[in-house]
Amino acid sequence: MAQTDFKICREYAAIDLIFSLYNIFDSMNHEDNDKTGELFGEAENGYYERLTEQLAVVLEASKKNEGLKSRTEKFKKAEKDLKDLRNELKKRMEYFSSVTDRLIAYEYVLNRLELTYSGEDELDRFLKGVSEDSFMEEVFTHLSSDKDKHIYMDKLQQLIGELPVQITKSKFFELIDHTMSLYLGTDETALDEFLYMIRMTGLIFEAPEYPDEYLKLKEQIKAFDDADLKNLDEKDYLGLKDGIFELSGSLQRIIDFYNDLQKCANDALSLCLVSKWLPEEDELIRENERNTIISLIEKKPDEELFVSFEGRIETVSDNLNARMSGIKAPDMNGEEEEEYMDLATLARLLSNSLYADIDPLFVESVQVTDVMLKEKEDELIRDFTGVLKGSPKPLRKAIMAKVMEKLPPFITSGEEIRDYIHINLFECRSKAEKCAVIAIIGDMMAGW
């Protein structure tokens, strides 16, 4: 049974490696690279070289004529180096994720300023064409269009995240307190994952610093940080809007690049782990896979080599998910324990959680106590207080809205939702913000 699992892992890792490696090649040779400038620089080239060096080791170790001792030593070294690489890539992604969350907050602000520069007559005409009753009916129709409770709650969270924020900081902290209280008695890991997400969204996560890198990106972020968002004239607004559009596109490309690098590292590491468990007659890397990988490493991809892999990843992925979901820890002796741990590690490496920790794979379960909860909450509120105090009002509202979107909805009944929309949107004192949000929610509902 387990041998079949390892064979499926082998096939998925090899095919996914090929396509992810091709995506990297495409990213590094894209015709728009000049637009991203130093986003693809020395560090990115260095990570790619380290990856290909380890791929060469894996290819060498997997040859049929390689002696067992030499093969084992090479796989172990590659395994260690690949683990180091994926840990470094995770830190880079934390940096880019923190920048992305900051851009999301600024985009929230800019979207609500868009109609500030329209005339009063234009805003009045727009509002005359909006019936509150019809708008409410449309919202409830879209919210309830799917009977799945989880989808309904996701839609409600999105709606809350777009409505104007009209709550005090104390009410905002009260919502966080309520959500955190739900983790009392649960595993500490789940609470820490929630706090990580909230810190990222709330712009209080301390991301790794790269002082001498990404200077162009940092200049653009500084332009947003230094902007007088409460008194922004139309020219500066348009400049920031164009800047955020260009920066968002560049960031998405560099994030895709790092995700593909991490996929390749995960796939190569998976092949190292699988090598211990395949029968001697089984090839770890087949000839067509080897030739395709080599063509990509040499930056001379042969399109004909890819034909045999088309359509296979979907089937193999379905098989992989079915097999990995059924992994259970048996009553183990030493070898069975090692086999189970490798399978569990493979399940994590080949999952959609590209940056998931594998060392340690499992941590001792620690239950969340009242004391622990209070300590973590006090620290979070203290950090939030500092960020909100140091941010202009439009950005404060953006931060609070995006965090509230991540919390379980605090309004659930039809009457509560209707009252919340009426008070926060239709009684909003800013005509420009009211018009902008009505349009934003309309576009959002069209995509549901």
Overview of this protein structure:
This protein is 71% helix and 0% strand. It has 448 residues and is mostly helical. Helix 4 (68-113) crosses helix 17 (393-406), helix 7 runs antiparallel to helix 17 (393-406) and helix 10 crosses helix 11. The chain is globular and about 80 Å long.
Tell me the number of helical segments per DSSP (H or I, 4 or more residues long). Answer: 19
Order of helices and strands: HHHHHHHHHHHHHHHHHHH
Bin the helical content: over 70%
- C-alpha end-to-end distance: 42 Å
Taking the sheet with the most strands, its summary is:
none
Tell me the overall shape. Answer: globular
- The average pLDDT is 92
Number of strands: 0
Q: Which range does the strand content fall in?
A: under 5%
The class by helix and strand makeup works out as: mainly alpha
Q: Low-confidence runs (pLDDT<50, min 5 residues)?
A: none
Radius of gyration of CA atoms, rounded to a whole number? 26 Å
Structure at a glance:
The protein is 71% helix and 0% strand.
What's the arrangement of secondary structure elements?
Layout: H1 2-28, H2 33-36, H3 42-61, H4 68-113, H5 120-128, H6 132-143, H7 149-162, H8 169-181, H9 188-201, H10 215-226, H11 234-274, H12 287-297, H13 303-306, H14 312-324, H15 334-349, H16 370-389, H17 393-406, H18 414-426, H19 431-446
Q: Which features characterize this protein?
A:
448 residues, 19 helices, single chain, mainly alpha
